[in-house]
Amino acid sequence: MQGDHLAFCCAACRILMAQTCNLTKGESLNCDWRALQWSILLVVTLLFSCTFFGIILYAVYFHCDPILMQSETGIRKYDQLVPYFIVTRLHSIPGLTGLCFAGIFSGSLSTISSALNSLSTVTLIDFVQPLFSDRLNPTLELYIAKGLSLMYGVATIALTLAITNVDSLAQATIVFMSVAEGPVLAVFLVGVLTRKASDKVISFLDVFLTNSFLYVKSFK
């Protein structure tokens, strides 16, 4: 899992399409560089906050693991620890429980919306435009992008329903993202560190399939 975390942090923070799209919106290279520096600070703050909150959960439930007390707590997975902590420890302050859940949902929705927009944009620019460039116009491209966002949204909901029985959603998320981001990071590093790489030397599809095979075998 440590390798998964490393690939996830390196790839998600620097070479994802959502990050690339945000960085290229600046007026100049200096503006993009400042945005990159600020994003590093925010990412480090986020990782530190998650780690600190994990330490708090460990300190609170060190002597009474809620998973081992399912008959009393009603939770069966460690993914349910955060909601359980919010409900049981913060209910004494009016409105704080709802505020915490609202923050969780708003953060999730903003992340998902950015991912869906990035997916539809990449699909439109890299696949649709090269194949149908003579038939497209700005209005049609807008409708196609909206349709692609809807399609990816439905696929995301279907994937969510498919992994509801997974033991750990956090582990499943890291695995799914590392399957795609690991090869992207590898191709990126090869392109940056050497001048001899080409499409004949390294194939993203080959790396993706190999990585997927290794992850599937690891779950057996």
TrEMBL record:
Record's protein name: Sodium-coupled monocarboxylate transporter 2
Transmembrane segments: 38-61, 81-105, 144-163, 169-193
UniProt-listed PROSITE patterns: NA_SOLUT_SYMP_3
Listed GO biological process terms: sodium ion transport
Main location: membrane
Record-linked PANTHER family: LD47995P-RELATED, SODIUM-COUPLED MONOCARBOXYLATE TRANSPORTER
A GO CC annotation given for this chain: plasma membrane
